[in-house]
DNA sequence: GCCAACGTTGGC
DNA sequence: GCCAACGTTGGC
């Protein structure tokens, strides 16, 4: 059992969008970074914990808890010329991009980026490291518990 | 809109 | 393999 933080722009898919999706599940399409892809392809298992994070928005932060709901499979948008995620270098017989499905566990209060930065127990989180831009980052069990503990305080 | 940080591309 | 140029991310 592993834990992850996954960034989503609320304009694209917010925690409420996730809650309204069929089975409260969305395919995590559009990742076009090899390191993030490799996490999904090589390390994610069904049931892994996910911190659902809102990025590139007025109030960035953790907006809910989710879980990995599938192992990785090819991202259809890489072959779709009309998609903004189209990748003309991707071949059907050798898909370059893969993704997992993510299912809502529960919406939480927003644990803002500022509050995350202020929490000593979250200091080691990869997502808070200077210059980090990865949209998917590993979370340690200790960090996961610390996030839950902070959320339970209110 | 700015800009730091980092990833990717492509010439050599 | 090096590295400059360029593109993207994402907080502010």
UniProtKB/TrEMBL annotation:
Q: Which Pfam families does the entry link to?
A: EVE (PF01878)
Note the InterPro entries from the entry: 5hmC_binding, EVE_domain, PUA-like_sf, THYN1-like_EVE
The lineage's top-level taxon is Bacteria
Keyword list (alphabetical) reads:
Phosphoprotein
Question: Which residue ranges does the record assign to the EVE domain?
Answer: 2-149
Q: Which Gene3D superfamilies match?
A: ph1033 like domains (3.10.590.10)
The record ties this protein, via CDD domains, to:
EVE (cd21133)
Protein's UniProt keywords contain Glycosyltransferase: no
For this entry, the protein name equals EVE domain-containing protein
Organism of origin = Piscinibacter terrae
């Amino acid at each position: 059992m592993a834990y992850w933080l996954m960034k989503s722009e609320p304009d694209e898919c917010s925690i409420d969008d996730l809650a309204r999706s069929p089975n409260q599940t969305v395919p995590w399409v559009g990742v076009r970074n090899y390191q993030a892809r490799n996490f999904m392809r090589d390390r994610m298992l069904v049931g892994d914990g996910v911190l659902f994070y809102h990025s590139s928005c007025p109030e960035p932060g953790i907006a809910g808890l989710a879980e990995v709901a599938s192992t990785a499979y090819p991202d259809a948008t890489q072959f779709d010329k009309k998609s903004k995620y189209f990748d003309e270098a991707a071949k059907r017989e050798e898909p370059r991009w893969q993704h997992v499905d993510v299912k809502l566990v529960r919406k939480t209060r927003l644990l803002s980026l500022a509050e995350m930065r202020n929490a000593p127990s979250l200091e080691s989180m990869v997502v808070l490291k200077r210059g980090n831009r990865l949209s998917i980052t590993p979370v340690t069990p200790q960090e996961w518990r610390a996030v839950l503990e902070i959320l339970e305080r209110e």
